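User: Continuing from earlier, I have the next pair ready.

Assistant: Great, send them over.

User: Here they are, in order.

Assistant: Folding the first of the pair now:
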Amino acid sequence: MYRKSILLLLSLFVMSIAHAQTIADQQLPKGENFEVPDGWEIRLDRPDDSITVGSNPDSADIYFVTMNPGWHLRTGPRGIFYNPANKTSGDITIHTKLHLFNPNGRNREGFGLFFGGKALKDAEIEYVYFLIRNTGDFLIKRRIGESTELIKDWAASDNIVIYDDPELSSVVNSLSVSVENSMLTFFINGTEVAHINADEFNVSSEGIFGLRVNHAINLHVEELGIETE
């Protein structure tokens, strides 16, 4: 099944390479196509040294590869995926475009962006995450160490494209977070779904950004980047 997904992606994205060239250098895929991407790190919610990350979809616990224009990943356990060079400060917009393949009934598993990442390898880890799931809901939370703080609980949004037809190869959703002064505005497929005052919630958008993906999700990341205001 995963090999079939890869072939479908190749035909789907071959015309998108020129668009990918516009993303800042540190956000472009690096390394060989269909190999684990250079420079990326993974932090699992429950660290486990027995978990393998690799480019063989049949044997790796987490399949994670460069696949121009973007990356492809299939998770086992949940965690965050990031390149430490991808950092933000000031007024910016963080965005990603995600293609969800058949979730095989795991519709309640979330996936999306994280930002404001600090101490990502340490016990004092901190970041904010913005997820969607195939139930048509979205979530905004903050992680601090081993605890999480709810900013906005799972809420329905008609803007989320649902995978509900097994004849489809995948469905695509775009997520973005706009930072302007102390206001954070969250968008799904170009439509605002929430906004918060960062000072009120004591959150910072400055730091590393990347992807957060829960259990057993098969996902292609067409783009991940920032735009400055």
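And the other member of the pair:
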Amino acid sequence: MSTSKVAVIVGSLRRESYTRKIARCLIECAPATLQMEFVEIGELPLYNQDFDDEKRPPAEWTKFRDRVNDMHAVLFATAEYNRSVPGVLKNAIDVGSRPYGKSVWNGKPCAVVSVSPGAIGGFGANHHLRQSLVFLNMPALQHEAYVGGVDKLLAPDGSIAKPETREFLAKLMTKFAAWVERNTQVQTGGVQQSGSI
């Protein structure tokens, strides 16, 4: 069984982010077939199509696009802001989807984990993100993963405090590894997309 490189993208910038702590736990639980790497999004300038049209994309965009393009799959871990994805994550998705016809997301298998102190575990963010993933031609693992009440699930050092939570995350990563193996394909260029940003 081959090893797949997986970009871990965290939709939260807070220093003590629950989402990042859960992402670290997911990395620890991942099977050896997944080589998990954080790809940071906090320094990406807001997307403006003029920069691509004028062939002067910011260096941060180019670095991000190259990094994601080199990955086989993506794990999205997101917080929920106002029943949707945080702006920083939506911006990263937009940056990666352009320039037109050269999306770095195209065809990459992915999984979505939403995290919240609230009871419904970021349900709104999870499904808003999935709507974008359909358009981006990213086969998303059809295993719903909402981590609610996260503030009560973590120990002071950021580790998982409850064995059943760790078991849930480990099962998710096992399913994700199988999903990546099944859906990984050689990338041959971006999907043609309509519209402008």
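Worth noting for the second one:
The chain is about 35% helix and 15% strand. The radius of gyration is 16 Å.
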